[in-house]
Amino acid sequence: MVKAILFDMDNTLLDLFKLKQMAIEAAVAAMIDAGLDCPRDEIIKSIDQIYIKEGIEYQQVFNDVLKKLIGNVDYKILAAGISTYRKIKNAYLDPYPKVIPTLLKLIKKGHKIGIISDAPNLQLWTRLCDTKLQHFFEFVISAEDTEKKPHSLPFKEALKILNLKPEDVLMVGDSIERDIAGAKKVGMKTALAKYGIVKEKIVGVEEKTKEKMIKPDYILNKFEDILEIV
Ligand SMILES: [Mg+2]
User: Fold this and answer.
1) Per-residue pLDDT tens for 101-138?
2) Up-side HSE of residue 101: CA atoms within 13 Å toward CB?
3) Could you read off the pLDDT of 192-224 as tens digits, one per residue?
4) Of 28, 55, 90, 97, whose CB count within 10 A is highest?
Protein backbone atom coordinates (compact mmCIF):
# COMPACT_ATOMS: atom_id res chain seq x y z
CA MET A 1 0.00 0.00 0.00
CA VAL A 2 1.23 3.48 -0.86
CA LYS A 3 1.88 5.42 2.36
CA ALA A 4 3.81 8.35 0.94
CA ILE A 5 3.97 10.17 -2.39
CA LEU A 6 6.93 12.07 -3.76
CA PHE A 7 6.49 14.66 -6.47
CA ASP A 8 8.80 16.23 -8.96
CA MET A 9 7.96 19.96 -9.15
CA ASP A 10 8.57 21.41 -12.63
CA ASN A 11 6.09 20.13 -15.21
CA THR A 12 4.57 17.77 -12.63
CA LEU A 13 3.04 20.20 -10.10
CA LEU A 14 3.73 23.42 -12.04
CA ASP A 15 3.33 24.03 -15.77
CA LEU A 16 6.71 25.64 -16.17
CA PHE A 17 7.31 24.87 -19.79
CA LYS A 18 4.26 26.70 -21.10
CA LEU A 19 5.08 29.61 -18.80
CA LYS A 20 8.66 29.81 -20.01
CA GLN A 21 7.59 29.85 -23.66
CA MET A 22 5.08 32.65 -22.98
CA ALA A 23 7.66 34.68 -21.04
CA ILE A 24 10.31 34.27 -23.75
CA GLU A 25 7.94 35.31 -26.53
CA ALA A 26 6.90 38.43 -24.61
CA ALA A 27 10.54 39.25 -23.73
CA VAL A 28 11.58 38.97 -27.38
CA ALA A 29 8.80 41.37 -28.41
CA ALA A 30 9.98 43.81 -25.72
CA MET A 31 13.62 43.57 -26.90
CA ILE A 32 12.57 44.26 -30.50
CA ASP A 33 10.55 47.23 -29.24
CA ALA A 34 13.66 48.47 -27.37
CA GLY A 35 15.70 48.41 -30.58
CA LEU A 36 16.89 44.86 -31.24
CA ASP A 37 16.95 44.73 -35.03
CA CYS A 38 16.62 40.97 -35.70
CA PRO A 39 13.79 38.77 -36.91
CA ARG A 40 11.65 37.45 -34.05
CA ASP A 41 12.01 33.80 -35.03
CA GLU A 42 15.80 34.08 -35.21
CA ILE A 43 15.95 35.53 -31.68
CA ILE A 44 13.70 32.77 -30.28
CA LYS A 45 15.73 30.08 -32.06
CA SER A 46 18.97 31.50 -30.61
CA ILE A 47 17.45 31.54 -27.10
CA ASP A 48 16.35 27.90 -27.47
CA GLN A 49 19.86 26.93 -28.57
CA ILE A 50 21.39 28.62 -25.51
CA TYR A 51 18.99 26.75 -23.20
CA ILE A 52 19.84 23.44 -24.89
CA LYS A 53 23.54 24.10 -24.36
CA GLU A 54 23.45 25.63 -20.85
CA GLY A 55 20.37 24.01 -19.31
CA ILE A 56 16.87 25.27 -18.70
CA GLU A 57 17.81 27.09 -15.45
CA TYR A 58 20.51 29.22 -17.15
CA GLN A 59 20.21 32.83 -15.99
CA GLN A 60 22.35 34.68 -18.58
CA VAL A 61 20.34 33.75 -21.63
CA PHE A 62 19.45 37.31 -22.72
CA ASN A 63 23.03 38.54 -22.24
CA ASP A 64 24.28 35.67 -24.37
CA VAL A 65 21.69 36.10 -27.09
CA LEU A 66 22.57 39.80 -27.48
CA LYS A 67 26.29 38.99 -27.69
CA LYS A 68 25.53 36.40 -30.32
CA LEU A 69 23.16 38.51 -32.43
CA ILE A 70 24.62 42.03 -32.19
CA GLY A 71 28.08 41.37 -30.73
CA ASN A 72 27.59 43.25 -27.45
CA VAL A 73 25.19 43.67 -24.51
CA ASP A 74 22.96 46.72 -25.04
CA TYR A 75 21.59 47.32 -21.54
CA LYS A 76 18.45 49.07 -22.70
CA ILE A 77 17.51 46.02 -24.77
CA LEU A 78 18.66 43.58 -22.05
CA ALA A 79 16.61 45.33 -19.37
CA ALA A 80 13.53 45.41 -21.61
CA GLY A 81 13.80 41.64 -22.07
CA ILE A 82 14.46 40.81 -18.41
CA SER A 83 11.76 43.14 -17.12
CA THR A 84 9.07 41.67 -19.38
CA TYR A 85 10.24 38.10 -18.79
CA ARG A 86 9.92 38.54 -14.99
CA LYS A 87 6.52 40.20 -15.25
CA ILE A 88 5.07 37.36 -17.33
CA LYS A 89 6.66 34.62 -15.23
CA ASN A 90 5.42 36.06 -11.95
CA ALA A 91 1.94 36.72 -13.27
CA TYR A 92 1.29 33.36 -14.88
CA LEU A 93 2.99 30.71 -12.75
CA ASP A 94 0.27 28.31 -11.64
CA PRO A 95 -0.06 24.73 -10.53
CA TYR A 96 -1.75 22.42 -13.04
CA PRO A 97 -5.55 22.26 -12.66
CA LYS A 98 -6.74 20.39 -9.54
CA VAL A 99 -3.27 20.21 -7.94
CA ILE A 100 -4.26 21.97 -4.70
CA PRO A 101 -7.59 20.12 -4.05
CA THR A 102 -5.92 16.81 -4.94
CA LEU A 103 -3.01 17.40 -2.56
CA LEU A 104 -5.50 18.26 0.19
CA LYS A 105 -7.35 15.00 -0.44
CA LEU A 106 -4.11 13.01 -0.31
CA ILE A 107 -3.15 14.62 3.00
CA LYS A 108 -6.66 14.00 4.37
CA LYS A 109 -6.36 10.33 3.42
CA GLY A 110 -3.23 10.18 5.59
CA HIS A 111 -0.56 10.16 2.91
CA LYS A 112 2.72 11.88 3.58
CA ILE A 113 3.81 14.03 0.64
CA GLY A 114 7.21 15.42 -0.33
CA ILE A 115 9.08 16.94 -3.26
CA ILE A 116 12.26 15.81 -5.00
CA SER A 117 13.41 18.51 -7.44
CA ASP A 118 16.49 19.27 -9.51
CA ALA A 119 15.72 23.02 -9.47
CA PRO A 120 18.19 25.19 -7.52
CA ASN A 121 17.05 25.85 -3.92
CA LEU A 122 16.13 29.51 -4.43
CA GLN A 123 14.11 28.90 -7.63
CA LEU A 124 12.49 25.87 -6.01
CA TRP A 125 11.23 27.75 -2.96
CA THR A 126 10.34 30.87 -4.95
CA ARG A 127 8.14 28.79 -7.26
CA LEU A 128 6.48 27.07 -4.30
CA CYS A 129 5.82 30.40 -2.57
CA ASP A 130 4.56 32.03 -5.81
CA THR A 131 1.99 29.25 -6.17
CA LYS A 132 1.10 29.00 -2.45
CA LEU A 133 2.33 25.41 -2.32
CA GLN A 134 5.05 26.02 0.26
CA HIS A 135 3.09 24.63 3.25
CA PHE A 136 1.79 21.42 1.71
CA PHE A 137 4.87 19.21 1.81
CA GLU A 138 6.49 17.49 4.77
CA PHE A 139 9.88 17.87 3.13
CA VAL A 140 11.58 19.18 0.02
CA ILE A 141 14.74 17.53 -1.27
CA SER A 142 16.78 19.44 -3.83
CA ALA A 143 19.66 18.47 -6.08
CA GLU A 144 21.76 21.16 -4.39
CA ASP A 145 21.42 19.29 -1.09
CA THR A 146 21.90 15.81 -2.59
CA GLU A 147 22.41 14.89 -6.27
CA LYS A 148 20.44 15.34 -9.47
CA LYS A 149 17.93 12.65 -10.40
CA PRO A 150 18.20 9.84 -11.48
CA HIS A 151 20.97 9.54 -8.84
CA SER A 152 19.73 7.36 -5.95
CA LEU A 153 20.78 9.81 -3.25
CA PRO A 154 17.69 12.11 -3.22
CA PHE A 155 15.37 9.06 -3.27
CA LYS A 156 17.28 7.36 -0.45
CA GLU A 157 17.20 10.61 1.52
CA ALA A 158 13.38 10.65 1.16
CA LEU A 159 13.13 7.05 2.41
CA LYS A 160 15.29 7.96 5.40
CA ILE A 161 13.08 10.94 6.31
CA LEU A 162 9.88 8.91 5.77
CA ASN A 163 11.24 5.82 7.52
CA LEU A 164 9.37 3.69 4.97
CA LYS A 165 10.19 0.81 2.67
CA PRO A 166 10.56 1.81 -1.02
CA GLU A 167 7.55 -0.27 -2.06
CA ASP A 168 5.35 1.91 0.19
CA VAL A 169 6.38 5.05 -1.68
CA LEU A 170 5.11 6.36 -5.03
CA MET A 171 7.20 8.77 -7.11
CA VAL A 172 5.34 11.04 -9.54
CA GLY A 173 7.22 12.87 -12.30
CA ASP A 174 7.18 13.93 -15.94
CA SER A 175 10.66 12.65 -16.77
CA ILE A 176 11.06 8.97 -17.59
CA GLU A 177 14.81 9.23 -17.46
CA ARG A 178 15.14 11.18 -14.23
CA ASP A 179 12.01 10.70 -12.08
CA ILE A 180 10.82 7.24 -13.12
CA ALA A 181 14.23 5.61 -13.66
CA GLY A 182 15.65 7.08 -10.45
CA ALA A 183 12.74 5.95 -8.29
CA LYS A 184 12.59 2.50 -9.87
CA LYS A 185 16.27 1.98 -9.15
CA VAL A 186 15.63 2.19 -5.39
CA GLY A 187 12.45 0.07 -5.62
CA MET A 188 9.73 2.74 -5.39
CA LYS A 189 6.47 2.61 -7.30
CA THR A 190 6.26 5.14 -10.12
CA ALA A 191 3.64 7.23 -11.92
CA LEU A 192 4.40 9.19 -15.07
CA ALA A 193 2.89 12.69 -15.24
CA LYS A 194 2.04 12.36 -18.90
CA TYR A 195 0.18 15.69 -18.97
CA GLY A 196 3.53 17.40 -18.22
CA ILE A 197 5.39 15.98 -21.19
CA VAL A 198 5.37 18.63 -23.86
CA LYS A 199 6.21 17.88 -27.46
CA GLU A 200 9.26 19.71 -28.82
CA LYS A 201 10.39 20.21 -25.24
CA ILE A 202 13.63 22.19 -25.03
CA VAL A 203 15.14 19.74 -22.59
CA GLY A 204 14.72 16.03 -22.68
CA VAL A 205 15.52 15.16 -26.30
CA GLU A 206 17.60 12.27 -24.97
CA GLU A 207 14.57 10.90 -23.15
CA LYS A 208 12.80 9.67 -26.25
CA THR A 209 15.14 6.71 -26.78
CA LYS A 210 15.08 5.59 -23.15
CA GLU A 211 11.34 6.12 -22.88
CA LYS A 212 10.54 2.78 -24.45
CA MET A 213 12.80 0.81 -22.11
CA ILE A 214 11.62 2.14 -18.73
CA LYS A 215 7.98 1.48 -17.88
CA PRO A 216 6.26 3.39 -15.08
CA ASP A 217 3.73 1.48 -12.93
CA TYR A 218 1.03 4.08 -13.62
CA ILE A 219 0.31 6.83 -16.14
CA LEU A 220 -1.40 10.06 -15.07
CA ASN A 221 -3.26 11.78 -17.91
CA LYS A 222 -4.25 14.52 -15.47
CA PHE A 223 -3.03 15.31 -11.97
CA GLU A 224 -6.11 14.11 -10.10
CA ASP A 225 -5.78 10.63 -11.67
CA ILE A 226 -3.47 9.93 -8.74
CA LEU A 227 -6.54 9.60 -6.49
CA GLU A 228 -7.49 6.45 -8.38
CA ILE A 229 -4.20 4.67 -7.66
CA VAL A 230 -3.52 5.47 -4.00
MG1 LIG B 1 9.91 17.76 -14.18
Assistant:
1) 999 999 999 999 999 999 999 999 999 999 999 999 99
2) 4
3) 999 998 754 544 455 555 556 889 999 999 999
4) 28
DSSP assigned state of 10? B
Q: Which of 133, 121, 56, 37 is nearest to 94 (CA)?
A: 133
pLDDT in tens, 45-94: 999 999 999 988 899 999 999 999 999 999 999 999 999 999 998 888 89
Q: How far is the CA of 12 from the centre of ligand 1 (A)?
A: 6
Q: Residues with beta carbon < 5 A to ion ligand 1? A: 8, 10-11, 174
Residues 198 and 107 reside in one and the same domain: yes
pTM here is 0.81
Q: How far is the CA of 204 from the centre of ligand 1 (A)?
A: 10
Whether 157 and 214 map to the same domain: the answer is yes
- Residues 82 and 106 both lie in one domain: no
Separation of CA 8 and ligand 1 centre (Å): 6
Q: Which domain holds residue 10?
A: 4-14+94-228
